[in-house]
Amino acid sequence: MTIDWNDTFAKRALKLTASEIRELLKLINQPDIISFAGGIPDPAFFPYDNMAAAYAKIFADPKKRAEALQYSISEGYTPLRQWIAEHLATLGIATHADNILILNGSQQALEFLGKLFIGPGDRIIVTNPAYLGALQAFSLYEPEYVTVTLDETGLDMKALAREFEKGAKFLYLTPDFGNPSGVTLSLEQRKALLDLAYRHNIPVIEDTAYEKLRYDGAAVPSLLSLDTSRLNESAPLSDPTSNGHVIYCGTFSKSIAPALRIGWVIAPTPVVQKLVLMKQASDLHVSTLNQMVMHEVVQEIIDSHTAKLRDVYRARRDAMLAALEKYMPAGVTWTKPEGGMFVWATLPPHLDGAALLAASIEKERVAFVPGAAFFPDRSGRNTIRFAFSLVPPEKIEEGVKRLARLIGEISAAAA
Amino acid sequence: MTIDWNDTFAKRALKLTASEIRELLKLINQPDIISFAGGIPDPAFFPYDNMAAAYAKIFADPKKRAEALQYSISEGYTPLRQWIAEHLATLGIATHADNILILNGSQQALEFLGKLFIGPGDRIIVTNPAYLGALQAFSLYEPEYVTVTLDETGLDMKALAREFEKGAKFLYLTPDFGNPSGVTLSLEQRKALLDLAYRHNIPVIEDTAYEKLRYDGAAVPSLLSLDTSRLNESAPLSDPTSNGHVIYCGTFSKSIAPALRIGWVIAPTPVVQKLVLMKQASDLHVSTLNQMVMHEVVQEIIDSHTAKLRDVYRARRDAMLAALEKYMPAGVTWTKPEGGMFVWATLPPHLDGAALLAASIEKERVAFVPGAAFFPDRSGRNTIRFAFSLVPPEKIEEGVKRLARLIGEISAAAA
Q1: Interchain CB contact of B206 with A (< 8 Å)
Q2: Mean pLDDT, range B214-243, rounded to an integer
Q3: Percent of chain B at pLDDT exceeding 70
């Protein structure tokens, strides 16, 4: 007799299927391809010297190095949590180190929040399109996805009000130039959204992965900052009876480097207490050494380093928007992101993103990500995601030019 | 209106309650207490110089440092997986890098296996007592615990056969001087256990956290090595049709250092494929930098370093067994571990471990962990766990002497 593993697995595990994006990334790692697929930071701009110095500094200190390699508390390295609280205070967010939990990137925050809130069949509201990694994290817990359209005009607030009316475990969204849309929510929409959340008592999960990468325009207050400012002074976020509605996910992956795997979640006390216990049961704590290094590095360079990153990525975004404007045939539209790493394009309805990708790799050696995967309902077949973060400006122009040529050819043949 | 968070949480989250051991550890961090509570490595023996050199080496190499800080594959750093496969081959375990997944310590392996296999009400078999961290990880997925007694004579094989007959999602155990029991399963029991697993097609999760810390006696082959040797040559573990029944959890936390958070799981191909997808959805991958450092360090020092650790901890175990023999009153019994970090003691039935701890901290300034938490059925009230890994031999004698005096006094008063 042999084990039939699929019979052995829990029902939730059947939701685990390979990510199209990840599988794709494995195939296009060839030098002659211009790839707009990987929405990841450019390693040319990681702060290597600061990091090397921070590791060396900790190993040179007998007390610090012992702490750095030993088991630690699940909440995360206290000085790092304090630094985050102080740093966010400068951005108008009134929080407290006790409400901050350090996790393995904000991806782990999403997975934990799925595990904390979602039972089979529970309604959760996500944007259409939404970050694929969030959908992967949530899907394990078998939710019913309810979608609200997100486009250049922001969120469909009427649809949101309708869905809030019906109830949901939470709303998840990325308010600032999110992956994949690049769209930013206006202050008015944020306030209206929070009003709705309070009216229906529905938690809002705010993903701020790209928040530091704003290239122009004024920063819009985060949902958490709006939430903490409306909380009564007698019950701030750290008060067990605080009525905060926003759960905030942050990360150093885009502002410093991803592979230390350090992100965080900020939540009202009853939520963060559960998440700390979840962290303990899941993997005890984030690497103490890495947390200590991150604390050293961000204290020193967060502002100067992210300013440098903004200059680099702004030039790439500008190159991409200029090239799209210059080369794309009529019928193709795209978002104009104020920050982040992505431009989201809508093709003429007769075009399929996945088919276009296959043709584009074969004929033009240009890669991007087809959009359907970002829609829980698998609509958006005629959308594609461009990431400009990894490609120098001159190559961006060349890549967009080639892809535009291909789209023109296909459209002409279909006409 | 305010959010009633407990109404919002999924049912599984209500299982999350504070670990008694962790809460306890927060209280006893006072210099005058002799603590046998924390079952963690002694930081005096972490390989600081080798680690510092490995971090410096990676940052000095432009290609390596870029890889070290960038997003990476969820499977884990390939050279580290290859090293583990080669190292285990020297211990008689025939496996393959493709069947190895790097995780945030073996704790994450346990959490993932709970998530992979357990649906609400599913039967899983654990030893009585069992590793508390495993019970915490599994409990989130709402299993029905079935327990099989583990004591100085090993596993209750009759009870195991009876429970296997009724079916279960898996059996979880630590065959070598586990936490908390310190007991080692004989080769005969391992073979019989595997025969039963094959007969009833029940996966066996083997936790090998302490495997490198054997102080005397000959190593007993791991369950995975017995499993891979009985697999047909035409279907080794890496074959998708392999009939392997054992899932092996390993870690560097006890042999090198815990806070890099690096462990691994080895499983038949259909299982490891699901676990890789789970890793991707959960937190993408373990810190690449830490994996590269661990790869540098273990290549260089795994044998010499663990030999040193064995000398240190052997002396402490010997001191603890000698002190127990010298001071403990009649009616107290304890295990004689061949390795690991723990001695498990059974008190006279009228004594309660938790009450003894309270008295012991107050009167004798000695700490340990009451045993009940390690029993899913909360039996074992008259058991306690001693960890000897953090205490120098002379303090061990003093601590045992004081506690023995207290037990003697309480027993005399009760008689």
Answers
A1: no
A2: 84
A3: 97
Mean pLDDT in residue range A204-231: 94
Based on the fold, state whether residues A382 and A406 are members of the same structural domain: yes
Q: Nearest-CA neighbor of B367 among B2, B10, B31, B19?
A: B31
Q: How confident is the model at residue B338 (pLDDT cuts 50, 70, 90)?
A: very high
Q: Which two tokens stand for residue A173?
A: 């969204």
Residue A290, chain B, CB below 8 Å: the answer is: yes
Which residues are CB-neighbours of B174 under 8 A, at least 6 positions away? B127, B130, B131, B206, B207, B208, B209, B210
Distance from CA of B382 to the nearest CA of A (A): 26
B17, B260, B282, B389, best to mutate vs chain A, most A CBs in 10 Å: B282
- Using the beta-carbon criterion (under 8 Å), do B289 and A260 form an inter-chain contact? yes
Give tens-digit pLDDT for A118-140: 999 999 999 999 999 999 999 99
State ipTM: 0.96
Range from A159-173, A322-336, B16-30 carrying the lowest mean pLDDT: B16-30
Q: Do A16 and B278 touch (CB under 8 A)?
A: yes
B358, burial (CB in 10 Å: exposed 0-12, middle 13-18, buried 19+): exposed
Mean pLDDT of B165-190: 97
Helix and strand numbers (H, E) in chain B are 14, 14
Q: Is the pLDDT of residue A98 over 90?
A: yes
3-state SS class at A192:
helix
The count of structural domains within chain A is 2
Cross-chain Cβ contact A8/B48 below 8 Å: no
Least confident of A98-107, A113-122, B26-35: B26-35
Q: What is the CATH number of the domain that holds A322?
A: 3.90.1150.10
- pLDDT score recorded for residue B30: 82
Higher per-residue confidence, A7 vs B265 = B265
Are B107 and A282 in contact (CB < 8 Å)? yes
3-state SS class at B222:
coil
Asked if B21 is an interface residue toward chain A (Cβ–Cβ < 8 A), one would say no
Task: List the A144-151 sheet strands across, edge first.
Answer: A100-103, A263-266, A246-251, A204-207, A171-173, A123-128, A144-151, A154-155
Beta partners for A300? none
B17 to chain A, any CB pair closer than 8 A? The answer is yes
Contact A282 B6 (CB under 8 A): no
Q: Distance between CA A248 and CA A239 in Å, rounded?
A: 17
For an interface test with B, the pick among A70, A282, A288, A309 (most B C-beta atoms closer than 10 Å) comes out as: A282
- Given a cut of 60, whether residue B234 has pLDDT beyond it is no
CATH number at residue B291: 3.40.640.10
Q: Are residues A62 and A89 both part of a single domain? A: yes
Note whether A232 contacts B: Cβ–Cβ < 8 A: no
pLDDT for the residue numbered B235: 60
Say if residue B119 is in the same domain as residue B249: yes
pLDDT of residue A289: 98
Number of residue pairs across A and B with CB atoms under 8 Å? 245
Question: Which of chain B's residues have a Cβ under 8 Å away from the Cβ of A16?
Answer: 274, 277-278, 281
Q: Is residue B24 part of a domain?
A: yes
Interface probe with A: pick from B71, B260, B291, most Cβ of A within 10 Å: B71
